[in-house]
Structures are given as C-alpha cells and as structure tokens.
Design goal:
alpha+beta; DNA Primase, Chain A; DNA primase DNAg catalytic core, N-terminal domain; Dna Topoisomerase Vi A Subunit, Chain: A, domain 2; 5-stranded antiparallel sheet
Length: 337
C-alpha cells in the first residue's frame, strides 16, 4: 500500500510548507494543523512515517496523530476521491458502482441552509427572533443562525428517514470546519419538545465542534460546552458536551493556549469529575467565584453581566497547576470517590 500513498504524498507535497523527503519511508514538513511555530517559520515537526505498510501523520508540537487517508482529505480534498478509487483498484475491490458512490459522495457547505430563514432576516415579531433576542444573543451572530418550522422534515430531506415522530420548529446552529465545509448542525427546540437539542452530523470525518471556522488557535482561546454560550466569548469553540479535554484532543491541539470553561455546577458529579481530570492534566481551567450562582454563560448574561464583565471574571479566575487544585478543592460541593 505504501507505494500508492507515496504517490499521493508527492502529489500533495506542494501544499506542505518546508516539505522534504528524509528517508524512503519518512517525510518531514511544517505541521498544517497547528502551524508548527509562529517564531520560527522553518520549524518542521510534522511527519509522515510508514509503519506496517501504511503511512501515518504525527506532529511533535501539537501531538496530532492521523491516518494518511484523513490527512490527505484535510490537506488536498481535490484529489482525495482519486486516492479512494486508486485504493479500491489496488485492493482488487474496484467496481464502477463503487467508483460512482465515491465520486458522487456529497459534501455540504452553507448552501444547505439556503431554503431556510436567517434569524437576522426574520421580523422582530417572529417568535424565533424573540427567543434569540430574549436570550441576548449578540446581534453580530444572528446572520449565522437559521430557523425552520419543521426540523425533522428538513433533516430527512438531507438524510432520508433520519428522524421520526412529531415535528416542530427549531433554531439551527451550523458547525463549520476551517475551510467552511459543513460538519453538521444542532437544532435547538423552540417549543416544549422534550429533546432540547438534536445534533446532526453530515461529515463524520471532521470533529463535532462548533466555532472551528473562526477560532485562532495561535493565541488564547476558550473551550466551552454549549454553542450558544460560546457566542458571548470571542475566540472560542464549543464541544457540545462536558468533555472539554476530549474536544481539544479531537482537534489535535496542545493545551498551551486553551482555557477550559465548564458550567458552574459544583454539585454535578460529572462536571466535578471532568474539571478534576482537567486540573490533574495541567489544563488552564476557569474556577467560578463563590458569589456567582448562575449555571452557564447565557444565564450570567441574562442576570445582568455584560460580555466585558464576564470576560474579566473568566480571565481573573483562570487557574492552572497547584493554584487550580486549591481553587477546585474549595469550589466543588461534592466529593469524588
């Protein structure tokens, strides 16, 4: 297999900064994920190395491991389908049906939502616009949020029979990758639907993380649980769960510039465990002050904090190492067993 992968390594080498062949089974270049180094443009800590007949990517700076197939798709998506077809031919499994399936496989972008209304375009009297306004979502983000009056019908028009049961209106929050390709989207219920959030992934080769199209990983960035909460914090991402550390690892980033902002739930066993693990692994973590009783960022904004006041609290209550251990011990209201 390696000869085929070597062919495509050379075909895509012009996209890799400082690319050079060090050995017959080893290629070196500046990491395209983390940028390798802002101070030294000649740093080359990204590698493609052959092991057991296949090439793998690894970066000694951001520690991102990846198969060659995923690496190629990220670096040079224009020839990715060609590689898949050649791979089938090489394995003896090629058929015209398989080629057609690869060639016609769909990738989505923002045009997927062209039939829907942007929240910014809705009249102020529309209940979806009122919902967003009442949540005090910053106006600069309204053009990137959408409304549908039948979410399940919309989803099923993309992925047939994906969702079943009664339908209803939802706010749609798209997740884009850094090249603007669509990862998926979350539908936030606007009625009494028991499932507040229903998330649909349209490209499972990409990390299910909100904000990747806007964040700058080369400076301090914030990692939150909820996409709507992240709209109040510049240069932030949201992982749609309490596993903030797992989110950082999914995108292959080091923890140097990351600030983890968990929900303010000192009596929630899952949250307490996640924060404890993050502190133990030397992440920078926000430990909320005792007099702040609101559960999440949006609740804090609704209770009167401005975005600048909130950011000041976050930056002055970010801890790491022994200081984080002490603050965490004082903050939590439940003991780990």
């Amino acid at each position: 297999m390696s000869y085929l992968e070597q062919k495509y390594i050379l075909l895509t080498s012009h996209k890799l900064k400082n690319f050079k062949k060090k050995q017959s089974n080893l290629y070196n270049f500046s990491c395209p994920y983390c940028g390798d180094s802002e101070k030294n443009k000649n740093k080359t800590r990204g590698y493609l190395i052959e092991r057991k007949g296949n090439f793998f990517f690894y970066c000694h700076n951001c520690s991102k491991p990846q198969s060659f197939k995923k690496f190629l798709k990220f670096i040079n998506p224009n020839i990715y389908n060609e590689f898949l077809i050649d791979q089938l031919k090489d394995s003896g499994k090629y058929t015209e049906t398989e080629e057609a399936a690869i060639t016609t496989s769909r990738k989505y972008d923002e045009s997927l939502f062209s039939s829907l209304d942007r929240i910014s375009d809705l009249p102020d009297t529309h209940f979806a616009k009122i919902f967003v306004t009442n949540r005090k979502i910053p106006k600069k983000h309204l053009a990137s949020l959408y409304y549908t009056h039948k979410y399940k019908a919309f989803v099923n028009s993309i992925i047939p029979n994906k969702l079943k049961g009664p339908d209803g209106p939802r706010l749609i929050i798209p997740f884009f990758y850094d090249n603007k390709s669509l990862i998926g989207f979350t539908g936030r219920a606007l009625d009494s639907d028991s499932l507040r959030y229903i998330t649909i992934v349209v490209d499972d080769t990409l990390p299910k993380i909100f904000g990747l199209d806007k964040v700058n990983f080369n400076k301090k960035y914030y990692v939150l649980e909820g996409p709507l909460d992240s709209l109040f914090i510049d240069n932030s991402i949201a992982v749609s769960s309490a596993d903030l550390v797992g989110g950082i690892r999914a995108i292959g980033r080091s923890n140097d510039n990351a600030v983890l902002i968990f929900d303010n739930e000192p009596r929630n066993l899952e949250i307490v465990k996640k924060i404890g693990a993050a502190v133990k692994n030397n992440y920078s973590v926000v430990i909320w002050p005792f007099d702040l009783i609101q559960k999440d960022i949006n609740d804090m904004i609704l209770d009167g904090l401005t975005e600048s006041q909130l950011l000041h609290i976050i930056d002055t209550h970010t801890f790491k190492g022994p200081a984080a251990e002490l603050e965490f011990s004082n903050w939590k209201r439940i003991e780990l067993v």
